Amino acid sequence: MKFSVNFQTRDFETAILAGLQAAPVRLAWSCFGGPSEALVKLTGQPNQLINAAGLLRAPVTVSDPDGVPVWFGFVNRVEIFQEGIKFSLAIDELFNKVKVSYSFLSPDQQVGEHLETAYAHDLASQAEYGIREKVLYYTNIDDLFAEAARDIFLEAHAWPFSKLGSPQKVREGYVLVYCQGWFKTLSWTSYQFQDGFYSNYGPGPGVFNAAVASNRRPAQRVTPGAACSVKYVYFLLSKNNAPTMNLTARIYDESGNVPNNVLATSATVAASTLPSSGFSWIKFTFTTAYALSASTKYWIGLNESAVHATNNVLVRTDETNNYSQDNHFARFWTGAAWTVIPNVSAPLSKVSLYFRVICLTDTGEQIGTIAADADQFFNHVWSISSGRKSCPYLYEPVNALQKIQGLMALGTSNDRMILADVSADRNLTFYEQPEPDTPTAYLTSSGKLYTDKGILLPAYRPPVGQYAILANTPTFTMPFDKNRVPTCFIANAVYYPKVNRLLVNR
Predict the structure, then answer these.
(1) Are the C-beta atoms of residues 308 and 243 closer than 8 Å to each other?
(2) Can you state the percent helix, strand and coil of the chain, rounding each to 5?
(3) pLDDT tens per residue across span 327-376
(4) Which of 35, 287, 339, 426 is the most buried (most CB within 10 A)?
């Protein structure tokens, strides 16, 4: 089987490497991203083999005899064997956006707070290869050390560098080109999302006596930075004596800097279940998560079904007002107006509640957002609505691809995985795993794969991401033996062109 291999310049404009012969050795695909890995061998004149060193991050396409692309991605590593030596270059060792995360060592040798430098960039390298991030971790260093370590590392790793290997006994020189699918470029950068979870843990003194006739409904102002849906609200509560009222959390809109209309009310919590000694975080659940708009002020409050002079509820407040958003404080309802909660320890300052607001968004929507944020090479990114929700909040930056893969593993509301595929024109599509009971590929006793239309599938076009079932055998009768011979999901496949052999799920 004759395959053609085409390398392009990094801007996808011009074909390169004329004069060298390229032959695919191994092609691999995955249901998590389509083309995953490939190995291509280059041969030619010894004085031209060295030109392969310039292939790093070059787009590569492997096409069948009809010129139809069957595998596509980029060059991840190049190994050149020539004149008895081996030297290699790898994109995995290139970093052009670097920062240092460190603990500070003060002049008196005291370890201070955890700090980070700003990112340092090599813009020329980024324009050539794409952005590749790296965070270096150190302990007990000062600011100057951290910045010097960052800059020295960037200088050494912003551009490809070759490594010499042990002597090789080869008759003729050749090059091995290791390739990866475009989906893996999502791992080159980190992702952080600091919305969807809003909270104040203090520390600061303060207690508000709620469920009293003139002291009711303590509420905290919150402004989400991104659209999300509130599912859970927590307050730090205790009971005073033996209250019998029920408690709910409420979401209010705002008018004139005070709570206005009640937008949503949580399920009830009996005040009698609160601790009588100390405070506990009490969760209030909204049966249907309530959608909040980005950059819009809301108030999250505690509501009581009744009041009592001595049997009531205590709410922890933070009189140091540690909540990070400016001008976001707490009020209460006097029976006639919304009033700022008094600050006993610092009378001129405002008060915040101890609270947590946990929002949820569709995991498919999160996948699309992260992929779009980390995207450097795709023409389009299409995600799905998974029907499952989770909190999108990420306090620390994480690897974008690892976060996407974690969300894909959560699957959809149909209890099926979320899969991904990349097309030859670099369009990334996330989709739901097919139904197990509706196979689209059939495996015969001779080892050949067919579509459900009876069309032979070439070994280099495996039905990855689909279900296959055994067919064309006298041992079993379909569909009656479907329970004895269930469908098999093809998660990955590897093809060896030289022997025309396909291995699935290996």
Answers:
(1) yes
(2) 15, 45, 40
(3) 899 999 999 999 999 999 988 889 999 999 999 999 999 999 999 999 99
(4) 35
